Amino acid sequence: MSRARYLPGYLLYRVLSGIFGLLPEPIMRRTGEGLGWLLSFVAGERRQMSARHLRRVAGEGADVDRLARQAFASYGRYWAETFWVRPRRLAAMAEHISIEGDDIVRAHRDQGGLILALPHLGNWEAAGIEAINLGLDLVAAAESLPNPLISDWFIAQRAVFGIDVVLVKAGASTELLSRLQEGKSLALPSDRDLKGRGVAVTFFGEETTLPAGPFVLAKRTGSPVLPVATYFRRGRGHHFVVRPPLDGEASVGEMAQQLAGHFEDFIRAHPTQWHLLQPLWPSDREEPM
């Protein structure tokens, strides 16, 4: 099928990248947050889904509509940074990154590839900048988008962050295993089970599944699974948190539940930076919003 029909959407992304690329960092950041907040007023179903997730995090008494709009503002910042980043800006970005737990990465990096398991918090792709500084050769799994031109653009953008991308499709698990065996480290967004065939966990008090990939790869290679969170700072920059490895002697189910517990802690710390706008729990699909 001709790729020409995908061209309008792709060109829109390129135009946005060109516009945001011209902006100074503070204006880019605030513009992204403002546009994300405005989008929350028209993205009804996705805003309601975000509010539904945030109710589980913050409790029944929370003003989840307000929290969801803040989450959209944070998501707008994520997109603005994605459009804005250029190779010449990486050094300046690195100056505004702080990390908690870098000693954990250093303690394990010489033993082979690491598996970094992340939720969709802040700008998770910016972790590639710090990964390079910590001496990691990073490969990330990413969802394949309906528009192949935009998928190709995203792969190129993530390469700017120092991240090599493997799209989640047939054969991806084999490729990720091969990269891990080569000594490369994997960054795996792990709070959304795309295939619906993951490992059952209790997450914020309700049963769902997490993707099995991090735990299966760990069992096959002996690589440690490190829970990682990526946060926006209040102003410019990012803050990353790395936790000690999951118990590699535990079962896959036990490892998944350990990771779910870490993700709960990460998300509760900054719930409005959790950019998950799709159904996550089975009840999200079964009950009206």
How would you describe this protein?
The protein has 289 residues and is an alpha/beta fold. The chain has one domain (3-286). 48% of the residues lie in helices and 17% in strands. It has a 7-stranded mixed sheet with strand order 1-9-8-2-5-3-4, sandwiched between helices. The chain has a two-stranded antiparallel sheet with strand order 6-7. A hairpin with a 2-residue loop joins β6 and β7. It is globular, with a radius of gyration of 18 Å.
Please specify the SSE layout and strand pairing.
Blueprint: H1 7-21, H2 25-39, H3 44-58, H4 64-84, H5 90-94, E1 97-100, H6 102-108, E2 115-118, H7 127-133, E3 138-143, H8 148-160, E4 163-168, H9 172-181, E5 185-189, E6 199-203, E7 206-210, H10 213-221, E8 225-232, E9 238-242, H11 252-269, H12 282-286
Parallel strand pairs: 1-9, 2-5, 2-8, 3-4, 3-5
Antiparallel strand pairs: 6-7, 8-9
Helix pairs in contact: 1-4, 2-4, 3-4, 9-10
